[in-house]
Design brief:
The protein is α+β, with helices and mostly antiparallel strands. The protein is built from seven helices and ten strands.
Amino acid sequence: AIPEPASTTVVRRVVLYVFDSFRTSLNKFGIGREYCHRPSYDPDSIVSVDQLSNITSDSPPLDEQANHSQSAPPLQSPPWPWRSMSIWHLMSWKMTSNSGLTSETQVTHLVCEVLKAKDFSLDDVPDDFNTHTEMMRFDASEATLDPNDIFQRDNWRELVAEILVLTRERNADGNGQLFTVPGFHYRPLLAVIRAAFSEASSHWFHLTPFKRFWKSPLTGREQRLYDELYMSDAWNKAHDELQKQKRGDGCKLERVIAELMFWSDATHLTQFGNASAWPVYLFFGNQSKYARACPTTNACHPIAFIPSVSFHLSRPKIT
């Protein structure tokens, strides 16, 4: 007799995904958040009121400012209206700066972080101090750094770009004529990402996307709100798929998405003459648009400079 085959047991494989999703409570405006994955921290919780507005609580009302401007005080000798000649010199330098780009925040930073630093001494600053000379010294010091140093990761590189231009000449490949454009400067994207996430401003980066909604106090109906990239469905879906990927490298660091936003346009460098440049900039969508639009946050990262191309292009020599 033929023995009956032994019964085989089919072991089914079940993949279990654990979602730590939750909803926040509504604020005074009836707005809440919905997370598919619990965030490690909330960048909005460390933003102060002073960082959202340049109007301080001790500023007088507008009508008082108007009345004060109409009745100007008589001329006074220095250090009026400040308490000492040191503050007078500092504020005079701020208000008479030729560039006009020295903000109040920058002057306050100069005093608190530089002049009042414990290791700062005017005796260390020579009489012939020149900012341009010290910047040249800083640029020359990069050659002595290790290639993996944090200050070397965003170094600029130069290469000769190659472009194909359609011509009337016969070409067996049918792709046009190859031209070379020297002087293309760029920074590796991975190096820029590492440098940006190493800066202090990365504390305001949103690493976990969420959905924002508003609940009507009258009808109780909820309405979805869209105002940032990290609140979009595409980012939430991509973040969810990233968390589901199998991890075999043994790394336990948080896996997040860096949203890259590119922008480029020709820039006129001087008020007189024809000097111009064509830079390429990078912004991070992880940062709020309100912070990206503020010049003092330094949210713009230059990653490339496109050289100007003329009709006198150099053709590669065919050997």
